[in-house]
Amino acid sequence: MPVSPSPGSPVPLSLSQIEARFRNRIWRGDAWGAAADPVISSGFQGLDKELPGGGWSTRNLTELLLPTEGLGEIRLLSYALEEMTRSERNILLVAPPYIPYMHAWEHLGIDGRHIVMVRVYKPAERLWALEQGIRSAAFGTIIGWLPEASQQAMRKLQILSRSAASLVFLFRPARARFEPSAAPLRILLSPVRGHSHALSLYLLKRRGAPFVLPIRIPLPQAAVFSRSAELKPALIPSYC
Predict the structure, then answer these.
(1) How do 195-205 and 185-192 pair as beta strands?
(2) Does the structure show a pLDDT above 90 at 64?
């Protein structure tokens, strides 16, 4: 037999009443994830359409998983990076595997004068540099190459990112897709066979319903290099 609430006690709200009262503050797991944080367009209409909020989200980690380096990962981010340097905001690179070839970056519209690079090698040093970069609030975009990271470390980076009005990208190996991660957005990059200027993107995790089909996007083409430039050891592949 149901017990009636005593006089003066609050009456429990039904689910429909809760949804009506807190309409803008409730998100269902199977619904589209609207981003309350500012976003910056990726520059690719098909990708923006599937990203919560319609672009790369600030105040959050974005994890980009690579089966190999040099797929065009910098070109994927080039529109956002160009926007950052046009606004005279700096970009921090933490532990890139190669020295950036700035001629190619500038051909993509990225102003090299706003690039800051930290060369560190040990996992603890990479994490420390990333944490300090996020905390500093001095960078519009932070990109870190993080082959190894514990679940606790990823959680800490996400917590720090929530307080910084920056884009934070982590490049990690594709095998990390099987590891738990606090990053709200995880994307697996894959080459398109026979097309060096295209990528297939698999949205492994996002706020909202999963998107199982790959998104194919054309990449902007970097500068046409002379033969002598191409022979520079390991300078070009990851950054064009």
Answers:
(1) antiparallel
(2) yes
Closest among 144, 141, 114 to 129, alpha carbons compared: 144
> Please, what are the domains in the chain?
44-239 (3.40.50.300)
Return the structure tokens found at 220: 């902007």
Q: How far apart are CA 102 and CA 65, in angstroms?
A: 23
Residue 109 φ/ψ region, left for φ over 0, alpha for ψ in the -120 to 50 degree band, beta for the rest: left
Helical segments of the chain, H only: 15-21, 45-50, 73-86, 102-107, 123-136, 151-161, 227-230
In contact, 159 and 183? CB cutoff 8 Å: no
What does the alpha-carbon distance between residue 101 and residue 97 come to, in Å, rounded to a whole number?
12
CA distances from 74 to 93, 150, 170 (A): 11, 25, 12
3-state helix, strand, coil in the chain (%, to 5): 35, 25, 45
| pLDDT tens digit sequence for 184-211 | 999 999 999 888 889 999 999 998 887 8
CA atoms within 13 A on the CB side of 121: 1
Mean pLDDT of the region 80-107: 95
Q: SS3 of 240, please?
A: coil
- Phi and psi torsions of 205, nearest 5°: -155, 130
